[in-house]
Fold:
Amino acid sequence: GGGAQSFNGFYLSAKDTGNANGSYLVATSQPSGTSPVSGSMSNVSGSSGTIYITGSGVETGDDGSNPVKAYTRVTADSISTVILN
Structure:
């Protein structure tokens, strides 16, 4: 996934969905909220030109109760990160 302006077939491997520092997943919709994510190996389907890689850590986030959470928006020509908590 990732060629020809499409991330169709892109996925995170089992090694990339979680470790001692947190859990990670990839999706085609923009994440929100402070709830932690569980690692996911789902493939990106369709012809999405944008993916979101979301991670939640083991540290407490800005709200003082939920884990830290952020996502990175990836397109064919840009990348940006947003901290949700």
